[in-house]
Amino acid sequence: MIPQIYLHRGKEESLLRRHPWVFSGAIDYVKAESEEEIAEGAVVDVFGKSGDFLARGHFQIGSIAVRVLSFRQEEIDAAWWRDRIAAAYALRRTLGLTDSGETTCYRLVHGEGDSLPGLVVDVYGTTAVVQCHSVGMYRSRLQIADALLACFGSRITAVYDKSSQTVPFNARLGAVDGYLRGAASVPLTVRENGLRFLVNWEAGQKTGFFLDQRENRELVRRYAAGRTVLNTFCYTGGFSVYALAGEAVEVCSVDSSERAVALADENVRLNFGPEAKHTSLAADAVEHLRDIGDRYDLIILDPPAFAKHHKVLGNAMQGYRRLNARAIAQIRPGGILFTFSCSQAVSKELFRTTVFSAAAQAGRRVRILHQLTQPADHPINIYHPEGEYLKGLVLYVE
User: Fold this and answer.
1) Total structural domains in the chain?
2) What range does the domain containing 298 cover?
3) Is residue 342 annotated as part of the catalytic site, yes or no?
4) How far apart are alpha carbons 216 and 395 in whole angstroms?
5) pLDDT single digits (tens) 299-318
6) What is the CATH number of the domain that holds 56?
7) Do 250 and 350 sit in the same domain of this protein?
8) Of the listed 132, 234, 252, 342, which one is catalytic?
């Protein structure tokens, strides 16, 4: 018998609106034949106080107690996984990503955005990289790998699991990264909008590359001509490569990681050779912005998440304000500032208000040219607005 979770009266409203989470505080009681049946990662059914079925999902320990897989009582078997992966693939085919020679890397599964909460799958050429953020997804990883191979056929030859840093620590799963099916050599050269990048999913951050900035990098290319560019928190130099492709006069890449800076240099050389007008610096980007003078007229601020949860939101917003104020104060008149937050806890409104405060602090005239978000292969479930995690503004500073 599938374990049954019953909610307190009135707590079924979010599920009736098809929100994919059940919070622990909403649970009244649990019916299960044994404690093992309700172990973390188990498939459970959720019922309202009146006994009406609401949803089926993965049980987990924590504030989010159930991540919903289906709002129907359907078996979560191999056929179900094939159908869900096929649906995710169909969307990317609609976006023109699955058969593009210009772009050979994209996100195939984006958690709640693809009705697969707790799962991320990125495609790099002929390799699919899986990241599980829940115990239920981790325990299903072999079925997920088989569903990927069934969907892609010979176009995917390897499935790599990179979940050791993303599964819940307290679950003590002993997760070790490695190939679930096949094998591949890294680094691999992929293409994005015709530009080339080296990706190492085995050793790199996330799944190896920040795919969510693809369209925003293309926008940098449009604005870069004739400009002197500073790319802070550069990681592997994605924005730097696009700026050079857009005929920037000079580009400087800054990151606190020496390894990241070295990868940025490699990606620049891969596209433009050793004579590219590019310099790099391993330094703290926030400190570097203390005194850059008026050297730059295009600055990119793409920091890691300052606020991973609401408890540190106040300090995070101070960090965003300080970072943006320094850039706005020093950018050349007529300069373009690309500024981002990838913190899910930071709303669009709060981020915009914080950047407004930074502009006022800097005392410059500033206009918003674009309001940016994540690309369509990182879709937002309309019933799960929390999935809109990437916020960005393009500012014109007089």
Assistant:
1) 3
2) 210-397
3) yes
4) 13
5) 999 998 775 666 667 787 88
6) 2.30.130.10
7) yes
8) 342
